[in-house]
Amino acid sequence: MSVLAGTGAPAGRARRALMFSGVRRAVGRSAAVRAGGGLLILIIGACVLVPVFWPDATNAFVTAPFAPPSLAHPFGSDDLGRDVFVRTLAGGRIDIAVAAAVVAISCTAGTIIGACAGSSKRRWASLTVARLVDAFIAFPYLVTILVLVVIVGPSAQIGPAPRGLTAVLIAFLVLGWTFYARLARAEAMTIRQRDYIVAAEILGYPRRKIIFRHILPGVVPVTIAYAVADAILTMGALSSFAFLGVGVQPPTPEWGAIMYEGRAYLDSAWWITVCPGLLLALTGFALSLLADGLLRGADD
Amino acid sequence: MTERVPPAAAGSERRPAAALAVDGLAVAAAGRPVLRDVCFRLEPGSCLGLVGETGAGKTMACRAITGRLTRIGVTVTGGSVRYGGIDLLAQSPARWRRLYGRRIGLVPQNSLGSLDPVMKVGRQVRETLRELDPGAPHDARAAELLEMVHLPRPRQVLGAYPHELSGGMRQRLMIALALAGRPDLLVADEPTSALDMTVQHGIVDLLAELRAATGMSTIFVTHDLSVVESIAEQIAVMYAGTVVESGPAPVILTAPRHPYTRALLAARPTRAQRGARLAAIPGQPRPLAPGLAGCQFAERCPLASDQCRAEVPPLAEQGPGHRSACWHAADVPAADRHDAPGAGA
Amino acid sequence: MTDVLQAVLIMVLVAVLVFLIVRLIPGDPAQQVLGQKATPRAVAALRHQLGLDRSLPAQLWSYFTGLLHGRMGSSLVEQGVTVSSLVLSGLGVTLTVVAATVVLSVAAGVPAGLWSVLSRLPGLDVGVRGLSVVLLASPPFFVGLLLILVFSLELHALPAGGWGAHAAADARYLLLPAVALSCYLGPVIVRATRQSALAAARQPFVEATLARGISPRRVVLAHILPNSLLPLITLVGLNIGWLISGAVVVEAVFALPGIGQVLVQAVSELDYTVIQGVAIVTALVVVLANLLADVAYTVVDPRIRHGR
């Protein structure tokens, strides 16, 4: 039993506690986390609630075209006299929901695939995943997304998703897991070297138990930290699509689509483009604050 | 090693060495005391061995002498450090820049970490010479410096990156760099601790030789008493952030008046008999415990009495220049080479 | 050497993935390009042009031999225009924008990062960090629109888009797109410089050099700066892919005839051969950039050079 002396495997429950205690400490202590989280909740709340109270205002012509921002219409009106404020908040639902869904699914899938590949005894399995991910990641992100949209067919539609969104969503999901898998594999490979994992292997613990009990809890904080940055990226990419001729089609409001429509009137009615852009940047800022705080919390 | 007189000795406009006096020095890190009432004295041109276990505060004392406390967020809370007429604790960073290299040279412990890893050795030597000795032809001076520390093949050494040199070569180089500005006080912070036994002796011999040639004062910090035997004229022994005994080296090495010094002497591997177990001091060394009443060594000391646990022993005169902080100084047995393990009990 | 082998392996995988693009499209790609009303003869002709009427191994063979000779076929939409000519002309513009962005970001980001670490000005570090968080949160296309609004429409200082006929004129068209893209790379550089400068400043050699009497200014410029620049080589290499992604969008905003515009047009027209060409060439650029960064790092860092 001398092999086990000093290996100090943290018990499963203790490790899980460890994994979340960093997050909990960061939330409790860091002003950045509280500010970022508060701002995010405020934005999401407004996006969910405001269009509920003004259900007609999203696509209705409520005022004169090109009305500058005023108290009644804080973001002014667009070329058709629609309220940019309500449209922006309604559009935020799509951007935030897509980002959240894509990140949640990609993170879960990628973390599990990467952790399994990284802790696999079969070298070829680990290497295959690694090289495949490398090849996927070799393409510039947006190029891959556009190619995937083409493969799926830009006009494909599943369920009640707004026109043009289905292909984009599938493209995001096909690509998204790879980044998490790369991170998770690298992390799992370093954890696998630790003494308590080696000891567990020698003792003949089932592999599934080792992965879920000991390796995943070490991998998850790393991928979650990346997930916040990924959410910013996904929102930015989604709103870029209007400028690339794919993605959500008008008249459905979406931040990028609103900005693309407003771009033609940039010199006379800047608010149509700038206001949704500022909300997009503000959401990204809130997420960055959150990510910075969480990362620092996880570090110490 | 060699009979040659190091070239630096000739024609150097070195100042005469002054006396270094550390008196009642106390420093604190983040409110916790680290050093307490550190006292020792270094006569001009002599060599002081500063000895103690890891964590005893030797390096911290070195930092105080060389103006490097604030960099690591440590503050002086009392006492004085005077070198000649200079109050070393009151120098601004700009004033220290004038002292470094020119008055006080520093040989750091970690020679690999103390050189820029991506700059060739030659550039680092020339950079130092440009700063400290602007008039001299740098290439000639660089070669001269390397010869002074007995580094062979100067061209190869100067053209190498730090990681390409051996530990012993790097330490010689660090000594050369410290002496580039002809300082009159050399502070060597554990210069041999990271080296092999055989290389250690070379470095110690080199320092002794350079000292004899230049007349500079030297502080030699080490955790190994046997290293300073051959070089130090004075020895100060530190334990838990304070000096527990100081005095002339021959006296300390043969007739210590502090049980800790006595135990250190007994633990020297060179004095151990073949086949016998090395003597170890029971218990763990630990940093200064501010809340502890009495002698910091009491819990590990074979002579400890109730008085030791209640009152801090003062650093009291035991003989000419010999001081010890022990209530039972008179009861400490003399050292001899036939010590039984755990002697002193 | 292993770096090169790995890069080659990835390139082969990339080529296979690109080969699969057209073959993965559900239904008949030729039919999709031509629409439902196309005659069967036209569809058959297009299938032949795409090589879809041959066996899969034969397709793969001719695809790879073509690639090795730099042949990527011709556009399905614009008759007689080769894919390589389209892709290469676009690539030139895109790489110019990317290079200008790297220069701009390093020139602004390194001093900012170094200054924010070393200056004792209160609030400077917080300010620099805050600004980089804000910039990172703003997507390049939005920054680009803001730049157009301010510098083109309000100040009339720089063109809102387009590409000049000659190099001197291009510099004016290049500036705003490069600034927009620098709002992504700049903060990344600032962050990395901050971190590596902090790490370098904490290394014992900094203190040892100061204790040799060397001036703090020289320690910063000659020791801390080179040591903190090293990691930036790898960082820029790793970010080339993201910069090309950003360039695709920024080109759309500024109407630059770069590879992004080539791709967007090909996507809207379902010009499969051009899409393949763009995908494989951009991936090649990314792999080569990473390889170059690895090689450059080994050349610059003596520890790695001799360690091998």
Please characterize this protein's 3D structure.
The complex is a heterotrimer of chains A (300), B (345) and C (308). With 300 residues, chain A is mainly alpha-helical. Chain A is 71% helix and 0% strand. Chain A is built from 10 helices and no strands. In chain B, strand 4 and strand 5 (86-87) form a beta hairpin. Chain C has 308 residues and is mainly α. Chain C is built from 13 helices and no strands. Chain C has helices at residues 2-24, 29-34, 40-50, 56-68, 83-118, 124-137, 140-154, 167-202, 204-210, 216-254, 259-269, 272-300, 302-307. Chains in contact: A-C, B-C. The interface between A and C is large, with 48 and 48 residues.
How much of the polypeptide of chain C forms β-strand, as a percent range? under 5%
Termini Cα gap of chain A: 33 Å
Biggest sheet layout of chain C:
none
Which value, in Å, is the CA radius of gyration of chain A? Answer: 23 Å
What is the global morphology of chain C? globular
Determine the oligomeric state from the structure. Answer: heterotrimer
Helix-strand layout with pairing:
The complex is a heterotrimer of chains A (300), B (345) and C (308).
Chain A: H1 12-29, H2 31-53, H3 84-119, H4 123-138, H5 141-152, H6 165-192, H7 195-202, H8 207-240, H9 255-263, H10 271-299
Helix pairs in contact in A: 1-8, 1-10, 2-3, 2-10, 3-4, 3-6, 3-8, 3-10, 4-6, 5-6, 6-8, 8-10, 9-10
Chain B: E1 20-29, E2 32-42, E3 47-51, H1 58-65, E4 74-83, E5 86-87, H2 93-99, E6 104-107, H3 121-132, H4 138-148, H5 154-158, H6 167-179, E7 185-189, H7 197-214, E8 217-222, H8 225-228, E9 234-239, E10 242-248, H9 249-254, H10 259-266, H11 306-310, E11 316-319, E12 322-324
Parallel strand pairs in B: 3-8, 3-9, 6-7, 7-8
Antiparallel strand pairs in B: 1-2, 1-4, 4-5, 9-10, 10-12, 11-12
Helix pairs in contact in B: 3-4, 6-7
Chain C: H1 2-24, H2 29-34, H3 40-50, H4 56-68, H5 83-118, H6 124-137, H7 140-154, H8 167-202, H9 204-210, H10 216-254, H11 259-269, H12 272-300, H13 302-307
Helix pairs in contact in C: 1-12, 5-6, 5-8, 5-10, 5-11, 5-12, 6-8, 7-8, 7-10, 8-10, 10-11, 10-12, 11-12
